[in-house]
Amino acid sequence: MNNLLANYERILEVLRKISTDTLLIYQRRRPKLFDLELISLVLTAEFMGIDSENHLFRNLPKALSCKIERSIYNRRKRRLSEQINSIRLKLAKEFNEFENCFIVDSMPLEVCKIARINRSKICKEHQYSAPNRGFCASQQMSFYGYKLHAICSLNGVFQSIDISPASVHDIHFLKDVKTQMYDCLLLGDKGYLSQTIQIDLFNEANIRLETP
Fold this sequence. Notes:
This protein has helices at 2-18, 35-47, 53-58, 62-65, 70-79, 81-95, 195-205, and strands at residues 101-112, 132-136, 141-153, 158-165, 184-187, 207-210. The chain is of the alpha/beta class. Strands 1, 2, 3, 4, 5 and 6 form a 6-stranded mixed β-sheet that branches. The longest helix has 17 residues, at 2-18. It is globular.
């Protein structure tokens, strides 16, 4: 997996320009793989479409596999989740620094088929985060689960990502956009038609929302 090591080193080089090697305070001995190196490995796996830890560690170069075990990698990855998200936002800000045109859209994240709603126990532990039933206009289908909302630059860099229950209308995602972006053009489909939101985005952050 020469590509994995090369991509890892490229990503790590960029991360070192925007963050430090130590992101968490450790009470025990110093880890062989620094926090930033672990985050670089996480982002490399995402970039290369490796969604299985088994596959990742089977193909991990010796230079990295000798520094960390899979169970420790998984545990530290969870502990670093907030820092990973913070670094993603910093990267997006750098990559999109000179962008002034973005696209907003949503897609269904189906948890199970409609017929299995009553039997499904997935993510029902808490009421506030439970999935529900929604409708996808572009695919003309009802589904049970969540919606993935995203804003992306024309070069393919995600500026903002969020998840909501399936029943939440697309337009509600834009209410928080004015705190994340400004002075730009935002393109969406007919699901984002709202004169109130359009005026609010323009007045608060000079965001021109268009739905051609």
